[in-house]
Amino acid sequence: MAGRARRPLRQIDYWPGFVDALSTMLLVIIFLLSVFMLSQFFLSQDVTGKDTALNSLNQQVEELRSLLAL
What we know:
The protein is mostly helical. It has one helix and no strands. The chain is rod-shaped.
């Protein structure tokens, strides 16, 4: 019995697959956050432009109203 070589136990290594899945999930989350940030930026710029145009139109309406009141 002493002459037999002991074979090491085969263990499944889950670590590389776990790291791959975790890094892929992190990359997807970062990509989605950057897309949402860009869309939020452009939508806020669009709303600000429309708000400025609406204020300008309200001023013109007020000027016309004052002219008609004369």
